[in-house]
Amino acid sequence: MVTVQIPKSPLEVGNFVAGTWKKGSGQMIPVLSPYHHQTIGNIFESTTEDVNDAIMAASKAQKDWANTPIKERSKIMFNFRNILIRDQEEIAHLKSAESGKTFQEGLAGLMKGIEVLEYALSIQNLDLGGKLEVSRGVQCEYRREALGVVANITPFNFPAMVPMWTIPIALTLGNAYVWKPSEKTPLTSLKIANALKEAGLPAGVFTVIQGKQTAVEAIIDHPAVKAIGFVGSTKVAKIVYERGTKLGKRVLSLGGAKNHIVLLPDANLDLSGMGISDSFTGCAGQRCMAASVLLAVGDVDKHIEKIIERARSLQLGKDMGAIITREQVEFLKSAIDRAEKAGAKVLLDGRLAKAPEGFGEGHWLGPTILDHVQPGSEAATVELFGPVISIIRCKDITEAMKIENSVDYGNACSVFTSSGVHAERVIREASTGMVGINIGVPVPREPFSFGGINASKFGHGDITGHHSLDFWSNIKKITSKWEKQVDSNWMS
Ligand code: NAD
Question: Going by CATH, does the domain composed of 259-437 fall within 3.40.309.10?
Answer without folding.
Answer: yes
